[in-house]
Amino acid sequence: MKTVSELLEGLQYEVIKGDTDRTVSDLVCDTRKVTEGCLFVCVKGASYDSHEHVDEIVQKGAAAVVAERPVAVPDQGTLILVEDTRYALALLSAAWFDHPADKMKVIGVTGTKGKTTTTYMVKGILEHAGYKVGLIGTIEIIIGEEHIPASHTTPESWQIQEYFARMAEAGCQVCVMEVSSQGLMMHRTAGIPFEIGIFTNLSPDHIGPGEHASFEEYAACKGLLFKQCRIGIANVDDSHFDMVLQGHTCELETIGFSEKADYRASDMELVGRPGYMGVRYRVSGKVNMDVEIDIPGKFSVYNSLVAIAVCEHFKVAEADLKEALRVVKVKGRIEMVKVSDEFILMIDYAHNAMSLESLLETLREYHPERLVCVFGCGGNRSKLRRYEMGEVSGRLADLTVITSDNPRYEDPQAIIDDIKTGMAKTDGKYAEIKDRKEAIRYVISHGQKGDVIVLAGKGHEDYQEIKGVKYPMDERVLIREVLEELAEEQKKGK
Length: 494
Description:
Udp-n-acetylmuramoylalanyl-d-glutamate--2,6- Diaminopimelate Ligase, Chain: A, domain 1, UDP-N-acetylmuramoyl-L-alanine:D-glutamate ligase, 25% strand
């Protein structure tokens, strides 16, 4: 149990009314979760501002209220003013959980693409070397053997600190986490003593209403991480390197193909054979060794260079490093599923035009006999995304199979028709198979020698959302069922 004043240590604040010596029973920022004796932090959201409900909050038993503007408080209440309540919430949360990040090395990864793969690479290598590692990311939160599905790339600050506390209790020595521009802008990561901050790359994304006002703001928010970490590791090849790292206060190391990179990749070779796609290269500079990764594409080189640079700070042996890189897998990120010795089948989360184009261009570099793309688009989302994805697949794939994703409250056929509008701008061949399992059955049963088949859009998701209900649907399960059914049919045919 802590007092209000103990929790406020490290914050600039003004006591407008009441007593800060009160003992606090809980830290709360949701009006639905107010408890007797809690410290309540008012936060203004897109559609709800708890500053407007302070009277109700105190009446429910809050011992004190933290606000960023003067509000009326009942006689029994305590009011504390701070400049920014989101920033205050982050520091208060760290104090409430006894600063758990101080008990670990925290590694933060930011960038437009590559965050998820990089975090899993770092985690995989460090664990292979004997470290116990927690993870916070787009797909899930991992604490020991516990896997918690994620709802945000970077959770709210209170939630982050709770995860840190659970990781510290579980004996984690390291936490590697994805750090989004939104998370940085909204101070969700404020006060975290990042040991290492990582910049992967930057391209226009998350710009618009409710996100970033401009590309410049987007870049500046990414850059905040490098004013909050001890060591920065950044992709020097990225055209926005200087923009993101402007004003950094950390020790800086660089990765890339550039001769000026501290960890420099060279002699890159795409490795393709029946049932396998990967990449090998030479890294020189602060480390000198040959590397091979079971994940295709040049971007895998960048992600692995970052992981190598990070692991140098943890004194990971070269043998452990190389072995771990060869076997690291990320669910739903160019995840190859063995179905045949003749062709390659993979699952990927590419769910917008930019990510689909990057994926298909990468796979094209391996010169497949045919590149087959199976995808749909989500319902109750922008029609523009459907047109763009249809056009991208029509242009880059030899065959597109248009199917259903998460139709939500829309008619799946209407979504398919929108995708076909984009396809019509190209000469690409396509088939439409509304049922996703049947679409998967079609591409597996019609797979040809040298094909690369990608199931795009679902990735790590294990459900399909239809009219507000999430039904179990994991593509790995569907693939297994299809293979079993095809084997049974073949047996009966004989």
